[in-house]
Specification:
Elements: H1 2-13, H2 31-39, H3 43-60, H4 66-86, H5 91-114, H6 117-143, H7 150-176, H8 190-201, H9 214-267
Helix pairs in contact: 1-9, 3-4, 3-7, 3-8, 4-5, 4-6, 5-6, 6-7, 7-8, 7-9
C-alpha cells in the first residue's frame, strides 16, 4: 500500500484532504480485526485467490465424490469472504456470505445422503447468488477511492474475473433445470461452464461449446456485451486515471525535494 500512502501525502501537500477510512472494523479488537485491517484494499492478494479458485474448480470438476465438491465449495466460499473483507463491506454481507457457504455445505451433505438432484441444484444456485453480489461490492469500494492506485486497478480486475465465475455458475444453475443440459449434451462438468463463460466474456468464442436453448444464448449475449462494456468504460477509465495520478505524484515529489534542497541552500 506504499503507493496509496505516497499519493495521500502528495494530496495533503497540495491542500486536498485524503479519503477517510472506510474499514469494516475499526479500532483494536483481536486477531480477526487485525486480519481484516491487513486485508482491506489488498486486491492483489484477492486476485491470486480468484485465479487459484479457477484452477481448483477446473481440476475438481470431473470428480463426483462428495469430498471434491466440499473442497470446491469451501475454497470458493473462503475466497469470496476474503474478497468482501478486502472490499470493506458492512458486516451483514459477511454474515450473508457465511450463511450461503454453510447452506451449500449442508446441501452437499444432503445430496450425498439422499442422492437427489434437487439438493445439487441448491448448491449451484447458492453459489451463483453468493458470487453475483461480490463484484458489485468490489466496484462500490473501488469507486470510493479518491486516489486511483495499483490496488484500485487490481480491484477492477478482480471484479472482472468474478463476473466470469458468476456467469459460469449461472449457466450451471440453468443447465440443471434443462432436460438435455445447458449445451444439449446432458450434464456438463464445471470446467466446461468456466471455459465457456470466460470465452464468452472475452469474446474469443472458439465455438466448441454452444448453448442449446434460447435462454442460454440470451445469457451468453448479455455476458459478452457486459464484458466488453466493462473493459471499455470502467477498466480503461481507471487505467487512464491511474497514469495521471502517478505522474502527478512524481511531479509533486520532485517539487517537494527541490523545495527542500533550496531551503538547505538558503540556510547554508
Amino acid at each position: 500500500m506504499g503507493e496509496a500512502s505516497e499519493s495521500t501525502e502528495a494530496l495533503e501537500s497540495e491542500g486536498i484532504a485524503p479519503p477517510a477510512g472506510q474499514g469494516m472494523f475499526r479500532g483494536r479488537g483481536g486477531v480477526f480485526v487485525g486480519l481484516a485491517d491487513r486485508l482491506a484494499g489488498r486486491y492483489g492478494f484477492v486476485l491470486a485467490l480468484i485465479l487459484l479458485d479457477y484452477v481448483t474448480l477446473s481440476l475438481l470438476s470431473g470428480e463426483t465424490a462428495t469430498w471434491a465438491r466440499v473442497v470446491a465449495q469451501v475454497s470458493l466460499g473462503l475466497t469470496l469472504i476474503v474478497t468482501l473483507i478486502a472490499a470493506q463491506v458492512h458486516s451483514r454481507w459477511l454474515i450473508t456470505a457465511a450463511f450461503f457457504v454453510i447452506a451449500g455445505l449442508f446441501a452437499l451433505g444432503g445430496a450425498a445422503l439422499l442422492r437427489g438432484e434437487f439438493l445439487t441444484n441448491v448448491v449451484y444456485v447458492t453459489g451463483a447468488l453468493l458470487v453475483i453480489v461480490t463484484p458489485i461490492l468490489i466496484l462500490r469500494d473501488v469507486a470510493s477511492h479518491a486516489v486511483v492506485t495499483t490496488e484500485t486497478v487490481l480491484g477492477a480486475a478482480c471484479a472482472y474475473l468474478l463476473f466470469g465465475i458468476c456467469f459460469a455458475l449461472v449457466y450451471a444453475s440453468v443447465g440443471q433445470f434443462m432436460p438435455n443440459g445447458f449445451f444439449g449434451a446432458g450434464n456438463s462438468p464445471t470446467s466446461d461452464y468456466l471455459f465457456f463463460s470466460f470465452m464468452t466474456l472475452t469474446t474469443v468464442g472458439y465455438g466448441n461449446l454452444i448453448p442449446a436453448a434460447p435462454l442460454g444464448q440470451s445469457l451468453a449475449m448479455v455476458e459478452a456485451l457486459s464484458g466488453q462494456i466493462y473493459l471499455v468504460v470502467v477498466v480503461a477509465r481507471l487505467v487512464s486515471l491511474w497514469g495521471q495520478e502517478r505522474s502527478t505524484t512524481i511531479r509533486i515529489g520532485h517539487r517537494r525535494r527541490r523545495s527542500h534542497h533550496d531551503g538547505e541552500r538558503h540556510d547554508a
